[in-house]
């Protein structure tokens, strides 16, 4: 089952204790201190993995704990650093604190965030030797690592997103233009979770299109299934508004969805938009209708395939493939962090 929410408690590893030891060798009756330092505790990091679809891999995971650093030993041997833990999440995952404030946005493949830093290791007694204190009989203990609670919210990263009332034919359209196989049936709310599909052009270009559950009046306030998944539209570069031309009062249906997008906020009503008039095979005369602020209007039939190729060409023209961003250093500090 699709999961776009998770809550985790992370605990970084405690640093190892410094060693309390003195050199003991034959013919060296009073060897000096030789206790090594404790190892650093392991970190807990979160990294965006483009192969993951949702947060279901974290289902049932409530506590994540990294390894403890090793203790320092004699002969100035330092303890090993604790084992780090790396959680893999889908691209587009937002990390929030318990108050709901955004901490990090893993919007790019490979982006990472250190959710908890390991505690430093304690210094061994060899570090405290001075000319006036040549045999220190004490060492530091390791410090505990960070501990925190986080909320993980997934917002799908798609080039275009389908929106519209239930049973308008969004899932049928996604099946027609992409490799996705969402459930299609003749009743509302057939789609109960987001579905991603890839549209391929003859020249090899690709676009990712998202289908979310249909919206109804009051969706912005939580009615129906749409409100729960409206966040997945925020990252889209283009909205595909699907309307059923066989249904009465097309304009009223269009305005109802536009109202819900505006009420939800987050700039959804400001995204570039195209309108798809679906099910033209069910009407004797095609509607002559236009909408203000719409980039283009397409008339098609998902049942017969009429007009689908024109829509595919239009999508690649209106939503060109983004140029790949230069790869950065793969080290953990390369992440988007908000303070």
Quaternary organisation: single chain
Rough shape?
Answer: rod-shaped
Average pLDDT for all residues: 83
Q: Can you tell me the number of structural domains?
A: 2
Alpha-carbon distance between the two ends:
33 Å
Number of strands: 14
* Structural class computed from helices and strand pairing: alpha/beta
Sketch the topology as an H/E string, one letter per element.
Answer: EEEEEEEEEHEEHEHEEH
Main sheet strand line-up: 10-11-9-12-13-14
Radius of gyration: 29 Å
CATH topology assignment of the largest domain: Rossmann fold
Task: State the low-pLDDT regions, or none.
Answer: 182-191, 218-225
Enumerate how many helices there are, as a single number: 4
Which CATH class of the largest domain?
Alpha Beta
- Please estimate the helix content: 10-25%
The CATH homologous superfamily of the largest domain corresponds to P-loop containing nucleotide triphosphate hydrolases
Q: What portion of residues belong to β-strands?
A: 15-25%
By CATH, the architecture of the largest domain is named 3-Layer(aba) Sandwich
